[in-house]
Amino acid sequence: MGLWEALRGRTQPKRNNLDALFLVPSAAITLQTALGFEPTGSGSVCYRSAAGAAFAQTQQDVVALIRDDAEAPEVSVTQDDFGFTWLVVSGDASDMSGLCTDLHAVNTTLELNGFEGGLLCSMVPFRNASGQAFGLTYLYKQGTFYPFAPAGEQSRDTLLELSVRDLLGEELPMEPDLQRWLAIWKAPGL
Question: Which Pfam families has this protein been placed in (predicted)?
């Protein structure tokens, strides 16, 4: 922050780094070897839909872009109880790079078409052999990751979340402010 911004009491918003999504495949290997968590093969982007034909066309273009991929993953668009839209991509669990490329394409297309203000997060779910799951969540506006591990209807597995944070701290830009670790109840794939 510069002197002028400090005097005026304004700060520059933190810029996201969507390329950080491409770090997730190597983090997935770490999760698999250290904690026994494997990717589920799905991933999603959460955003607030905008009204109007321009947004509807952009969303249709994003879905068509992903479906035209050589691997042709499944794509669905759903809305949660809080009014957020989830674009879910499901494919081969072993193709983490392809999944992250698709999530990057969704975020980038919405951003380039002027809808970056509605982007909330991207999530890649992981599950272990005993059925325990968490979502590795990328906060769009912060440019950081955090794990969200639901442990019931309205409870979290905080120990698992902190373990994942500590394990991936050197590989991914992890969100240091725990208050930004949003509880994303009923997220697709969890």
Answer: PspAB
State residue 124's pLDDT score.
98
- Structure confidence at residue 82 (pLDDT): 87
Confidence of residue 66 (pLDDT cuts 50, 70, 90): confident
Nearest to 39 by CA among 23, 21, 25: 25
Task: State residue 132 phi and psi, 5-degree precision.
Answer: -70, 135
- Its domain, for residue 134, covers 17-180
CA 182 to chain centroid, in Å, comes to 12
User: Rounded distance, CA 96 to CA 125, Å?
Assistant: 11
Domain count, the chain: 1
In angstroms, the CA 172 to CA 138 distance is 10
For residue 65, give the CATH number of its domain: 3.30.70
Q: Is 94 left (phi over 0), alpha (psi -120 to 50) or beta?
A: alpha
